[in-house]
Amino acid sequence: MRRLRHSLRWALIKAAVAGTTMVALAFLIPLGLMVQQTARDRAFTAAERQAAALGPALAITTDQDAIARAVASTDAGAQGRMAVHLPPAEAAGAAGGMAAATAATAATVGAPGPAAGATIGEVRALDADVASAGGQGRSFTVQVPGGYALLQPVAVDTVRTAVVEVFVADGDLTRGVATAWQVLSGVALGLVAVSVLVADRMGARIVGSARRLAAAARALGAGDLAVRVPVDGRRAADSPEELREAAHAFNAMADRVVHLLAAERELAADLSHRLRTPLTVLRLNAASLGEGDAADATRHAVAQLEREVDQIIRSARRAPEDAPAVTVGCDAAEVIRERVGFWSALAEDEGRRWQLAGADRETPVPVQRGDLAAAVDALLGNVFRHTVVGTAFSVDVLATGSSVIVLVGDAGPGFTDPEAALKRGEGHGGEGSTGLGLDIVRKLAEATGGDLALGRSAVLGGAETRLRLRARPDGTTPTRVGRRRGRGSLFAR
What EC designation does it have (predicted)? Predict the structure, then answer.
């Protein structure tokens, strides 16, 4: 409960209660007062109708028995709430004028003496109030014990006026008001309850979405890189637009974090793999040192360094992901010439004949220079690592308007299982190999929309690795450009 009091959901409920209560009071209080006034007006209106019902009878006769029967025939008379104050039987002559009218009026107030008129029914109003009503000739109400008395003057003839008194009890003035207030209070409570329910449901949607977002953020912070906030489906559709945008932003951020971490792992693995090229040279040179303590120590140090580099590569590539797309470019022909020149020195030492063709003209590709150099080193390093000393190799560059193809072939035994060789990134390539060289080359090709294929060299008869880098979206048949050149070229005529 304490947690609920400090939650957004509770705040929405309190706001809904406050707003609905103010609106309900603004409408229901005036409505209740109007109902109360309506009940009061209804009671007095009914009393006036009861008094007016005796007008025809008084205009016909002032006989007490007849008037008593007329009073008893009304609802108010039957309930003992009506009285009739009759004028005296003696009427002033017409010549009496105003004096006679005044005397007749004075007689209606029930003044003591033989000239006073008769009274029928239970009287509650004071004589002075009755006289005032008859003298003024208009009806009004006076407060009496237990309620009010309506005094209604009725002309009997030209000079005499009777006064009809109708009692209105206090209960009649408030009849139905309590029930109306109860109904209105129930309506107000119902509105508040509905508003609380609606606010609670809305708050549950908002709070649920916010909690899912917070849980995803905590999971991401704890290292769960696969966590995502659902942005589709019924639950997501019920979330506010702002929280859906926040969920999209969170998912984009999580994807970017995964992307950056994957790129960092790839970079660490690639940089470590680049160390294998000079290590290969060191290992081959150390093998030619002969026997002796210094030679053994050098070979041991090189082997230990290779193991450490292999461990770094495996650790960095433990959870591989696609690296970010590379948008910078380089001249593939220049990079290939440089790397083939580097490996040519080692090829001379091992008596390997080599050749390079198609690298005489500028060949732009959308990859980083260092990444392409690492890929070429991986392909040439595989030739030196997996073929015997003296085995010839060749490098061909083919270019079209859409792609650049690099063919690396050798005169070795070739691939016994090309498909398994392409999966070496998931296994092992033998002793002294991390099995990641071809995987690095494949990822570089796929980053540009190209591919990597293994086969048999049509020229040398051994293995051939085909690296295709996508340069432009249009496709044409690849053609060989430039001419072959090389030290100890197999094709020198």
Answer: 2.7.13.3
